[in-house]
Amino acid sequence: MILRLISANVILGLAPIALVIASWQGLVSFGFAPAALLPPPGHVFGRLLQQLVTWTFQLEIAATLIRLFAGFAIAVVLGVSIGIAAAASPAINAAVRPIVRVLAPLPKVALYPALLLLLGFGHGSKVTLVAADALFPILLSTYYGASTVEQKLIWSAMAAGTPRYEILFKVVLPAAMPSILTGCRIGLVISCIVVFLAEMITSTDGLGHALVTAARTFQAVDMFVPLITISLLGLILNALLGAVRSYLLRGFPEA
Amino acid sequence: MMSPTTLIRRIAPALACIGLLAIWQVASLVLKNDSFPTAIEAIKAIPDILSDRESLINILASLRRMAMGFGAAVLFSIPLGLLMGRSRAVAAFFNPLLMVIYPVPKAALMPIIMLWLGVGDVTKTLVIFLGVSLPVIYHSFEGAKGVEEKMLWSGAAMGLSPLQRLVRIVLPAALPEILTGCRTGLVLALITMITSEMIARQSGAGNILFNALDMGQYDTVFAMIIVVGAMGICLDAIFERIRARLVRWSEPQFDMPLSFS
Amino acid sequence: MKVVPSRSSEWVRPVTPQKPASAIIEIDGVSQVFQTSAHKDHVALSDISLTIDEGAFVSILGPSGCGKSTLLYIVGGFVRPTSGVAKIKGAAIIAPGPDRGPVFQEFALFPWKTVLGNVMYGPRQQGVRAAEADAQSRSLIEMVGLKGYENFYPKELSGGMKQRVALARTLAYHPEVLLMDEPFGALDAHTRTRLQNDLLNIWERDRKTVLFVTHSVDEAVFLSDKVVMMSKSPGRIRHVIDIDLPRPRRRNELLLDPRYQKYVVDIERMFDESDGAGFPA
Amino acid sequence: MKVVPSRSSEWVRPVTPQKPASAIIEIDGVSQVFQTSAHKDHVALSDISLTIDEGAFVSILGPSGCGKSTLLYIVGGFVRPTSGVAKIKGAAIIAPGPDRGPVFQEFALFPWKTVLGNVMYGPRQQGVRAAEADAQSRSLIEMVGLKGYENFYPKELSGGMKQRVALARTLAYHPEVLLMDEPFGALDAHTRTRLQNDLLNIWERDRKTVLFVTHSVDEAVFLSDKVVMMSKSPGRIRHVIDIDLPRPRRRNELLLDPRYQKYVVDIERMFDESDGAGFPA
Amino acid sequence: QQTIRVGWTIPAEESKYWMMRRPAEFPDLGKTYNIEWTQFQGTAPMTQALAAGALDCATQAPLSLSNGVVGGNLKAYIVAQHVFEKPGGFSVYWAVMDDSPIKTIADLKGKTVGISVIGGGTQGPFNLLLKQNGVDPTKDIKLVEVGFAVSEDALRQGRVDAVNMNQPFAARAEAKGGTRKLFSLSQAMPNIVHILEACRADFVDKNPELVKAYVRDITSGMKKALANREETLKVVSEVLKAPVPVLETYLLKENDFGRDPGAAPNFPAIQKMLDIYAETGMLPKLDVAQFKHPTIVAPLQ
Ligand SMILES: Nc1ncnc2c1ncn2[C@@H]1O[C@H](COP(=O)(O)OP(=O)(O)OP(=O)(O)O)[C@@H](O)[C@H]1O
Ligand SMILES: Nc1ncnc2c1ncn2[C@@H]1O[C@H](COP(=O)(O)OP(=O)(O)OP(=O)(O)O)[C@@H](O)[C@H]1O
Ligand SMILES: [Mg+2]
Ligand SMILES: [Mg+2]
């Protein structure tokens, strides 16, 4: 029963993707786009399969994933802890709120050259950029979730003798979990975008770099392979996050 | 008479800004890095930007695009998010699609986008639209999911059609969460407003910034960053007003008691 | 678990679903099975059959967790039963409708609307003009004793006040059938008595059909034409008791009536005897 | 609104705060004013003074919205009164503590924890070892009649079941003072009686102090040493009534006791007479 | 009145900057035809835009244009030339710190070297020079992408051991001192053409008069730029938003790139470059003739 429900949902989810691929094929077939810019999907997926088993391409994926995970993890840890602290303490709130207001909307790519010089051309600068961009959506969601925790849950925990700082972990964190996970989902997508962008701007490896080299020499098929890869990575990571989510929120009404 | 705490609350933003600038100043002096000018140098470059008529027109053009992208995104994303939140089928249909589309950096798709939409306003507005819609969709989605079922039942029993329930119950009930999404969206709107002008530029704030970056004029780059930050503060303050008005009913009744004593 | 045969008193009759001409709600072999998070099946209602006549006041009594609310949800059309059907006026119930007005145990007020806004919501939805809806709502608010609180938001109300707003909100749009889930549970005795009287007045005037969940045997006997007693694990109907007391009923008269006393005592005894209470000894 | 002088019966005494040697909780001139969203001040409690002796069972009766819950929040240390002080053992109450265990009207269960997890929370927090806490919690869960529901999440429970979990959760960590806000409000008569007895047993065994909000005059008289009657708008204490009935009390014995009957009838009459009910005629 | 969509970039297209900033100086501009200007970051995206038909004419480098032709089915004509490396003038060079142990190209072995664009126009001559000196550009060095703007910093911070320098950054770095030139591209070949103007062939064939007018204005723009240095400094400063004193240090001076007075493309030099790219495996062999339009090419009067 559940299996059938899941597979029905999977089919429903695959339908629009199939539709996109079909219209892609259509665009190519009916000449709305030159093959030099938009190769037919068959070629792209064929090349993708070829590439996936090669060691060099796997290395590119690994480089991108390492940066993605490191940056995202930093963003989650910082975002959640700052968000909760700001919700819990007016003093921290007074300090954090204006800083967030200023820093959140800054175009972080503009700082990328400075980051490159400070942290080098390796992982450090890209991880920092990813973390900086993914941080604020997570922070804002966490803050919202934490500041709307049902008061009486906190009261109950306090009355049971929970020290204040522990309440943050034992009540505020789990109660804010739905919002936090929404923030994480957005942060994850942004991480995917930014890591790719950073690699496009300056890098010697990673999917973004693979795309740029292919784009400069007009190898359209090779250009689309990293694009499709990051798409699929986004899909897979999001599915994983969804699984984590339904486990963590199993007690909540909306789960 | 203002109590000390409200006084602190009032001037906290100014203090924080000054603090940030001070940290920046010290950091840049310590790091001694040409691509990271001091705060004072950057501030000195601001008047040049703001006194230049052309720059102002550029900035206004960017803001106009941002407003359009933001507005369109909000109008599009909230209904989609709410529908996804209330219908498993809709969610199952759109979720994978969105998760395939969003992680692709728009900059990488530029050649294709240019093919159909050219290099003008439409393309940039589309990029802003995509940036804003991401958080708005997902916050609306989760907000709608979390709406207490019995409230919807009450509405249904009063004879509200599913659509009316969506608009008149799910929307207001999820509004606090939706507005959080819009706030993140606002942040992303400013960011994408700039970055959408990274590759192809006509007129805009990003144009000024990336030109300066290409020319290695880092004081202008950072001056522009300050200008964007200031825009962020203003927009956020306006947004906060609107938000407070819309969702006054949802404010917690008591301060979080963790801060007692 | 078998159905205990009814006791030999003339006003207790065995559970035999029957369909008089005037039946408005028919519940036929309804069962409800929930899937718990632990992926186990939990039977909340098992093979419930019940007929409610048009204009009848029927109370449901039963131990906590026996499925009273679930049964109400099914009649309301909010939940589809796992098996069996519930019908209203002969048509299967597949969705909620303004003919059935619920008062939920958890109130489910709209937090973004004031007391007045909540109460006016239904009438406005039914197309009543603003001024009229306003006036009607204000008088209902006054009836439930909340005059002066019109502009309060739900979060600013006490538990009992919220419950009264929920009651007023449902009464405001005049549903034919009222589905009330412990609507007076959070009220003090005094307020409760007043509201019972008000409810009876409305009922007698408009001849609404009422399905009323309560924990108070007194209340059930005082208000109802028929008391349905449920037992637990899984939720079943144990007894259906017709309350044969004259109407209109006045509380102080009734309290002295030995038949009333007998109903109360007998029902309480049935409760005690019932093995279905699902309660460890 | 002036305080109505107490009626001339020997067990009703006027509100005179006094401080016996064994007082555990002293409430002294406490007022609570809420700011409503409409930026108006709303007086929920006005100049409340009350002393509760150690080991006493004190019930609070009063019309809906008179400030009973608010008073409990103040004693619990969750809300700071606008003026006046509440003290426990002579020290001003400024924060919640494990010496005072609340059972909230809205239950406030942790949605991410199962029934067992909720009940175990307190003992674990107090440093009880896991195995022991587990065993204790399970027996408490059995006591409140929820055996078999240990692994259910709150969303899967009925209203009455949630209320019982909330009760068990508080009892589990053995607070010295119990602050109970209509803890049996959502329960059927049968379950309620059982839990009343269980509560009395615990109370008699451990000699806890109990502050008990209820809407049932019966329940208040049956359980309490002292009944505090409040009136509304603004919330004030009207009467404090000592219940002078022998202990241990057995319900069936008591029901036949004319003194018990008199208490109930008198308190009900006081309710009716009270102009403080804030209820339109 | 027809419109021509033109892509441009910074920093060295003075004739186009004149057209943008001083349109009144050009008799046809804004009267018989219009230009819709779009600025790009680098030439590669403009090649894509040309291939996608989003631009009609754009600044190009020989390599990016050829890539478009080879991979993107682009057909285009080279109609004018902006800057090249005139002998004795500025040539893109690789710099090291004064105290660096790297004295010759061979010393680069095992070092981290910065280049503005990996696979970009400078890499052909760069690879050639390395190979000539016994350094395998793919194995012996670690190549990282360092944009011209951050080159100097990257070098001074020690992030790279050698890095390429371009104007105006080179002038700035030299003014500061502490760096020295290791080798320059002119050692691989003279007259390297950096940027030129290209137009889509289909567009030219359809609108020959329009493109002619455009090329005419480029030609006259180049003339004005060279004739009136003072005004050119102002124009460039407006476009680049760079202060005049900075530009003063190099623009149109001896240490700047070369500009042909008629903006005429140097086809033989371009052919030489294409050969180098072919030699280093970056492109298949190409004949420059395919970029030549019989009539529409600067100088046009
Ligand atoms: N979502 C759910 N998942 C699993 N079990 C559920 C769910 N909802 C209700 N139940 C179970 O169904 C049974 C009946 O619940 P219901 O709320 O109808 O009881 P009730 O008679 O209204 O009780 P009360 O008087 O306490 O309100 C309970 O045992 C409860 O645990
Ligand atoms: N946050 C608030 N803002 C404004 N008024 C409030 C707020 N909280 C409570 N009140 C008011 O305070 C009064 C007392 O509320 P309280 O919850 O203590 O009543 P109660 O005696 O517990 O009633 P009940 O028996 O219905 O639970 C009510 O009139 C209520 O409207
Ligand atoms: Mg129920
Ligand atoms: Mg209360």
From TrEMBL, chain A:
Keywords: Cell membrane, Membrane, Transmembrane, Transmembrane helix, Transport. InterPro entries: MetI-like (IPR000515), MetI-like_sf (IPR035906). GO terms for biological process: transmembrane transport. It is found in: Cell membrane. GO terms for cellular component: plasma membrane. The chain crosses the membrane at residues 12-37, 57-87, 99-121, 127-146, 167-198, 218-241. Residues 61-241 form the ABC transmembrane type-1 domain. It is a multi-pass membrane protein. Pfam families: BPD_transp_1 (PF00528). Its main location: membrane. It comes from the Bacteria. Belongs to the binding-protein-dependent transport system permease family. This is NitT/TauT family transport system permease protein. It comes from Bradyrhizobium sacchari.
UniProtKB/TrEMBL annotation, chain B:
PROSITE patterns: ABC_TM1. The keyword Cell membrane applies. Residues 59-239 form the ABC transmembrane type-1 domain. One of its GO terms (biological process) is transmembrane transport. Gene3D superfamilies: MetI-like. The chain crosses the membrane at residues 66-85, 97-119, 220-239. Keywords: Cell membrane, Membrane, Transmembrane, Transmembrane helix, Transport. This is NitT/TauT family transport system permease protein.
From TrEMBL, chains C, D:
Involved in beta-(1-->2)glucan export. Transmembrane domains (TMD) form a pore in the inner membrane and the ATP-binding domain (NBD) is responsible for energy generation. Belongs to the ABC transporter superfamily. Pfam families: ABC_tran. It comes from the Bacteria. The keyword Transport applies. The keyword Nucleotide-binding applies. GO terms for molecular function: ATP binding; ATP hydrolysis activity. This is NitT/TauT family transport system ATP-binding protein. Residues 25-257 form the ABC transporter domain. It comes from Bradyrhizobium sacchari. Keywords: ATP-binding, Nucleotide-binding, Transport.
